[in-house]
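Sequence, please.
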């Protein structure tokens, strides 16, 4: 069989929708200045779909820092991987500042979050080591686990009692094989918004010998008294052995980092294939990240604004009887019941008639018959934005209950293919 022919006849769980969804429900184009209101297909929409928690993406100080750095260094410098010819004092400065901020001795700067997490897991765990991870872990963690040549155990999401059982199994096997145990979870789970039970997991170290890797992509910059992340929120920074964060969320940039003990960070510097064989993060992005990190630390008002918007939005939705699951972070999931047709017609109505743009999640990402509308509050949003959204959600929920979205075929949109 021609391997391409196989791909044409089986586009995958999500790809099968592409001819109906591309450019509208999937791969939509939001245009204009990054802000609470942008343009979708020529219409202004109130957008709740950008991971720009602190509103730094288009902040004048950030734009200035990015522009000046690009003017001075261009986008090519430094050339080469960091181990060879792509290393600079600015990269080191950013690593020192990140490590200090999250309360660790050292940090290693990464080009991207996704490939970074995959490569961390691959570098740390050998064939005789055992991985234990949360069932709702992000795809980058799952891909890293798939590279692991040894045994892995999964525990139901945030189920500490089951984690204890898996650690008992892992301990027996690791002892027999002469390996170690790595537990992996998230600080903030990006789809549901609930927090990993870091305090309870760290407490298990009294019973079991393991190391803890936390993916804090959505917690870094948003959680904790200073914004240092979910470990700070729980007061367990010392118990988290490797603290992973990304610049793509609160810092509205490109890049990531992993922080921990100095000797382990040096091990990663010399053994993470995704960094050893990839070009260094460009200087303009490094300097931009330094400015973003400085603002995050010296401008607490932007995190306060984020949480004002978050609390007002979530309180309003709960008072109207919406199901937000167990979120206790800015990530705001709104759960409803319905099939594909109801979901797409409702989102079409929200975008076209109410001017509200949010992300939609349906099967196979979540169980069949469930609809998840995911809102990401930011420091850019206003109280008027919240009120507009609450009214829109009340209206479309009533239409969903009345069956108005199930009486027609799936919204007929012009796809960009």
């Amino acid at each position: 069989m021609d391997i391409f022919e196989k791909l044409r006849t089986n586009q995958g769980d999500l790809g099968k929708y592409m001819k109906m969804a591309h450019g509208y429900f999937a791969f939509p184009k939001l245009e204009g200045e990054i802000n609470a209101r942008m343009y979708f297909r020529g219409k202004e929409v109130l957008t709740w779909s950008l991971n720009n928690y602190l509103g730094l993406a288009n902040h004048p100080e950030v734009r200035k820092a990015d522009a000046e750095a690009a003017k001075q260094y261009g986008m090519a410098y430094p050339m080469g991987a960091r181990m060879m010819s792509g290393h600079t004092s600015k990269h080191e400065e950013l690593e020192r500042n990140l490590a200090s901020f999250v309360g660790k001795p050292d940090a290693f700067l990464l080009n991207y979050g996704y490939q970074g997490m995959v490569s961390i897991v691959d570098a740390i765990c050998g064939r005789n080591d055992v991985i234990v991870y949360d069932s709702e872990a992000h795809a980058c963690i799952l891909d890293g686990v798939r590279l692991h040549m040894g045994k892995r155990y999964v525990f139901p999401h945030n189920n500490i009692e089951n984690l204890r059982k898996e650690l008992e199994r892992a301990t027996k096997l690791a002892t027999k094989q002469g390996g170690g145990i790595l537990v992996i979870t998230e600080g903030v789970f990006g789809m549901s918004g609930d927090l990993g039970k870091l305090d309870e997991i760290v407490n298990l170290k009294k019973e079991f010998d393991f190391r803890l890797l936390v993916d804090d992509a959505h917690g870094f910059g948003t959680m904790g008294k200073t914004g240092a992340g979910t470990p700070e929120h729980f007061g367990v920074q010392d118990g988290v052995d490797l603290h992973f964060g990304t610049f793509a969320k609160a810092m509205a940039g490109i890049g990531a980092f992993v922080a921990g003990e100095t000797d382990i960070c040096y091990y990663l510097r010399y053994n993470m294939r995704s960094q050893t064989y990839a070009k260094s993060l460009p200087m303009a992005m490094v300097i931009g990240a330094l400015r973003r990190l400085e603002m995050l630390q010296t401008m607490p008002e932007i995190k306060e604004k984020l949480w004002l918007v978050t609390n007002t939005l979530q309180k309003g939705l709960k008072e109207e009887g919406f199901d937000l699951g167990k979120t206790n972070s800015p990530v705001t999931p709104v759960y409803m019941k319905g099939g594909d047709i109801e979901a797409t017609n409702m989102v079409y109505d929200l975008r076209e008639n109410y001017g509200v743009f949010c992300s939609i999640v349906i099967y196979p990402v979540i169980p069949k018959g469930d609809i998840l509308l995911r809102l990401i509050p930011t420091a850019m949003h206003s109280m008027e934005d919240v009120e507009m959204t609450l009214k829109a959600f009340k209206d479309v929920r009533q239409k969903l209950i009345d069956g108005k979205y199930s009486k027609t075929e799936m919204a007929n949109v012009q796809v960009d293919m």
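The longest helix spans residues 300-319.
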